[in-house]
Amino acid sequence: MMNSLLCFLCLCIFRTVSPESCSLEISPSRAVVKFGDPVSVSCVASRPVRVLGWESILAASHTQNQLSVQWKVDSLTDWIEEPICYGVFFTAPRQCEEKLNLVLYKKPDSVSIILVNHSSPVVEGREYQLQCDVHNVAPVQFLQLRWYRGQTEVYTHSFSELLPATPVQVSSMLTIVPNRVENGAEYRCEAELHLGPEGPESPPTVQSELLSIAVQYPPDFHSPEEETLEIREGSEVLLNCTAEGNPPPVYFWTSPDLQEKPNDQPVLADASLGPGVYTCTASNILGKKSKQFVIRHKSKGERD
């Protein structure tokens, strides 16, 4: 019973040895490895050692009286691998260990983007949600998801609060309130793994397809909503009611002089239009807007 207690106390003393007293150095101290790639790491003792080795699921190894030992795997595919280098020394502290900071990563299989519970086109001024899904990525805490409209970055989503080391699927949401200027805008998202200085020089990146958003909006006129024209009798009159809208607007003209004239065009050009008020209405499924033209004839003595 006494021997067991002594062994337990010895074990406790060993486990409380501070890291500064351990005479082991791992090189590189942080290994960033792509899923399926080879990896090789050395552990070196700075003082004479009785046994030096690696505890590992895949490649356990040890040496006797040698100051270095290598941990080597031809193809790393184990997500729970946590290699530990240990040493048994001739002098105190008799035992110590160092854990390899190992990052096994996998870039996403794919990245997809959708308009949630809707399909394009959308309506100007209303709120919509875009969703970006990243499929089968690890480790997710190193992931940054960047949202773009055209070439402009509009949002960055990080996942540093998540801890899984194995591949997972994650999503990001972007709220948009489109306007007519953004009609036809193309959205995309890009998934980047930022793995630190030990990782690839360029972050492994996968981007989604482009999602084009068509924006519908009510008609609006290019020029003021009322125009007055003073012309000589017999001169050609041009009334331009062109409006911008999506879907493209249809037009309706009203005036006593238009009873037998085509009235579905945005522009009227006619020398027979008499004085009076001509009203044009442009409309689409989202609304309508009217514009008035007032025509006045100049008297013969009136100068232009």
Describe the structure.
Strands 13, 14, 16, 17 and 18 form a five-stranded antiparallel sheet that branches. This protein is mainly β. It contains one helix and 26 strands. The chain is rod-shaped, with a radius of gyration of 38 Å. The chain folds into three domains: 86 residues, Immunoglobulin-like, CATH 2.60.40.10; 104 residues, Sandwich (Immunoglobulin-like); 80 residues, Immunoglobulins (Immunoglobulin-like, Sandwich), CATH 2.60.40.10. Strand 4 and strand 5 form a beta hairpin.
| Number of DSSP E strands | 26
**Which spans have pLDDT < 50 for at least 5 consecutive residues?**
1-20
| Helical content (DSSP H or I, runs of 4+) | under 10%
Largest sheet: 5 strands, antiparallel
Q: Which secondary-structure class do the elements indicate?
A: mainly beta
Pfam family, one: Ig_2
GO biological process, one term: cell adhesion
InterPro entries: ICAM_VCAM, Ig-like_dom, Ig-like_dom_sf, Ig-like_fold, Ig_sub, Ig_sub2
Keywords: Signal
